[in-house]
Amino acid sequence: MSLFYPNIVVFIGAIAVDLTFGEWPNAVHPVVRMGKMAKLFDIPSSSNFIRFSLGIMLVTIDISLWLFIAFIFCSIHVSIVSVLLQIFLFKSTFSIKALYKHVSKCACEDEEKMRRSVSMIVSRDVSQLDKPHLISAALESLSENTSDSITGPFLYYAIFGLGGAVIYRVVNTLDAVVGYRTKKFEWFGKASARADDVLNFIPARVTAIVFTIFSPRRALNSMKKYGFLKINAAYPMSAFSGVLNVWFEKKGVYRFDGREPVLNDIYLGLKVYTLSTTILIAIFASIMVMR
């Protein structure tokens, strides 16, 4: 089995495992290990050049390590063992059930419980957000993570096999860990952030196009108005906002027009997410079958 050629059995098998069991335990989860690699290279330095160089080394070595592991899994001569190991690794690159579960927990009447649940899926400070802004944050996360957690891994697996999915997940994970424009990570995380921008360019737009199926006029109008605000994330977010016809707002950063989001919009958003994921699975499975 080739490292850079997809296997429809691995693809369907990994999805079945995800929908049945959800995430792997942290103790054996490859993504946890991908993220922890950052600690080894996060060496304090007053030199921006050194910090930037360390960031490049982090991305390069982390990708190389996991590509080597993926290569071993693909090279095992006992086919059933190879397939099972590939399913294990590929399944770790995406998350369908866990994303649904985390967002569904945000759909509660108790505002403090909602606040705790939303804080688990967004990086912004939610301590002062009112209920509509908490709902907005949950829906923004759902739309953006449909691209990061599903479309991206599926697209790169369908085109470049396990190797492609692993590269995507390493870069996306490192971006989530160090890709911030803060004093500490501005230069160290720059390589991860820019690589993530490149790899997510197509997935973000594919996700947005799939969302438009559910309300083409509103979704396209919203993307036209707000898609430029972020190089990638604004496309699925603005399309999702348009489909649901609600405003999304991160105070001081952006606001997409629409009516005020209410609790029921989380349930509607999860329905759109479920249908969109089904469409994405069908699209990428078809691509693999036709290759």
Q: State the helical fraction.
A: over 70%
Number of domains: 1
Any idea what the shape is? globular
Mean pLDDT: 96
What radius of gyration results from the CA coordinates?
Answer: 19 Å
Low-confidence stretches: none
Gap from first CA to last CA:
15 Å
Strand order within the widest beta sheet: 1-2
Number of strands: 2
Q: In what range is the share of β-strand residues?
A: under 5%
The topology string of helices and strands comes to HHHHHHHHHHEEH
Number of helical regions: 11
Quaternary state reads single chain
Structural class: mainly alpha
Main β-sheet: number of strands, strand sense, barrel status?
Answer: 2 strands, antiparallel
Based on the model shown, name its key terms.
291 residues; mainly alpha; two-stranded antiparallel sheet; 2 strands; 70% helix; globular
Give the SSE map.
Blueprint: H1 8-21, H2 30-41, H3 48-75, H4 79-91, H5 97-104, H6 111-119, H7 131-178, H8 190-212, H9 216-226, H10 234-244, E1 248-250, E2 254-256, H11 263-290
Antiparallel strand pairs: 1-2
Structure description:
The structure is a single chain. This protein has 291 residues and is an all-alpha fold. The protein has one domain (8-290). The protein is 70% helix and 2% strand. It is built from eleven helices and two strands. It has helices at residues 8-21, 30-41, 48-75, 79-91, 97-104, 111-119, 131-178, 190-212, 216-226, 234-244, 263-290; strands at residues 248-250, 254-256. The chain has a two-stranded antiparallel ribbon. A hairpin with a 3-residue loop joins strand 1 (248-250) and strand 2 (254-256). The mean pLDDT is 96.
